[in-house]
C-alpha cells in the first residue's frame, strides 16, 4: 500500500518518471532492449489523461515499484556518478525539460498530441500496449509534433540498434512519455533550478521513496 505522498515526494515521483523515460531511451540506444516493467509504466502514462493523484499516472498503488528504475537512476545522478550512461541520461532529461517548456507555449500542438494519443488508445484496445502498431502510432505523434521544433534531442548509442525501425519508434515513444512526466513535474511546481537549490531536500525525499521499495 502506497503511503500518502507529500508534494515534494510527488515531485520526486514525477522527476523519476522523466528519468525513467530517459533511461529507457538509453537502454534501447545501447542494447536494443528495455526494462519491461519500466517500459509498461512509461507507455501507460501516456494514456492517463485525468489522474486524481500523481501516482495514478505511474500505476496507482504500484507507482513507486513501477518507477523503480527511475528512482534508482535518480539516486545515481544525485551521487554524481560519472559513467557515460548516466551522462547521456542526464543530457536526455535536460533536453526533455527544455523541449517541454517550448511545448507548453504551443496550445495547438498540445491539443494535437492529445487527439493523436486518443487514436493510439484505440490501437491499445485492439492490440496491447507494447505492440508494434501502438509504438508506431505513439512515435508518429512525437515526430509530427515535437520534432518540428528547432531543438532536437540527439540520441547516441549503437547504430545497429538505433537504425532499426522498431527501436526508432520505441525511442520516440519513450521521449513522449518523458514529455508527459515533465509536464506533470511542472504542474506540481517542479523547476530546473530546484534540482540544485533543493538538492538536499530532494535526496531526503528520494531516500524515503527508495525505502518503500523494500517493503
Structure, explained:
This protein has 215 residues and is mainly α. The protein has a single domain (7-213), classed as YcfC-like. The protein is built from eleven helices and no strands. α1 packs across α5, α1 (7-31) runs antiparallel to α9 and α7 (132-144) crosses α9 (165-187). It is globular.
Summed over residues and divided by their number, the pLDDT gives a mean of 94
**Total individual domains:** 1
* Structural class computed from helices and strand pairing: mainly alpha
Radius of gyration: 16 Å
Task: Give the SSE string.
Answer: HHHHHHHHHHH
CATH architecture: Orthogonal Bundle
Q: Under CATH, the topology is which?
A: YcfC-like
What would the principal axes of the Cα set say about the shape? globular
Strand content: under 5%
How many individual helices?
A: 11
Report the sheet with the most strands, covering strand number, pairing sense and barrel closure. Answer: none
User: So, the CATH homologous superfamily?
Assistant: HflD-like
How many E strands?
A: 0
Architecture blueprint of SSEs:
Elements: H1 7-31, H2 36-45, H3 63-66, H4 68-78, H5 84-103, H6 107-126, H7 132-144, H8 159-162, H9 165-187, H10 194-197, H11 199-213
Keywords, please?
215 residues, mainly alpha, YcfC-like
Summarize the structure.
The protein is 69% helix and 0% strand. The chain has 215 residues and is an all-alpha fold.
Amino acid at each position: 500500500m502506497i503511503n500518502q505522498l507529500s508534494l515534494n515526494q510527488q515531485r520526486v515521483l514525477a522527476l523519476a518518471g522523466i528519468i525513467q523515460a530517459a533511461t529507457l531511451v538509453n537502454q534501447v540506444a545501447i542494447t536494443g532492449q528495455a526494462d519491461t516493467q519500466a517500459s509498461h509504466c512509461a507507455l501507460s502514462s501516456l494514456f492517463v489523461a485525468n489522474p486524481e493523484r500523481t501516482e495514478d499516472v505511474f500505476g496507482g498503488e504500484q507507482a513507486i515499484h513501477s518507477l523503480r528504475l527511475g528512482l534508482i537512476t535518480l539516486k545515481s545522478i544525485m551521487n554524481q556518478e560519472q559513467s557515460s550512461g548516466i551522462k547521456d541520461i542526464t543530457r536526455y532529461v535536460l533536453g526533455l525539460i527544455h523541449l517541454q517548456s517550448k511545448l507548453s507555449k504551443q496550445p495547438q500542438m498540445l491539443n494535437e498530441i492529445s487527439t493523436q494519443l486518443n487514436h493510439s488508445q484505440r490501437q491499445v484496445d485492439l492490440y496491447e500496449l507494447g505492440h508494434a502498431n501502438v509504438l508506431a502510432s505513439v512515435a508518429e505523434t512525437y515526430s509530427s509534433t515535437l520534432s518540428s521544433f528547432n531543438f532536437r534531442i540527439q540520441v547516441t548509442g549503437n547504430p545497429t540498434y538505433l537504425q532499426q525501425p522498431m527501436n526508432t519508434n520505441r525511442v520516440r515513444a519513450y521521449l513522449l512519455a518523458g514529455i508527459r512526466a515533465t509536464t506533470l513535474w511542472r504542474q506540481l511546481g517542479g523547476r530546473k533550478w530546484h534540482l540544485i537549490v533543493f538538492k538536499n531536500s530532494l535526496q531526503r525525499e528520494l531516500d524515503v521513496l527508495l525505502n518503500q521499495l523494500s517493503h
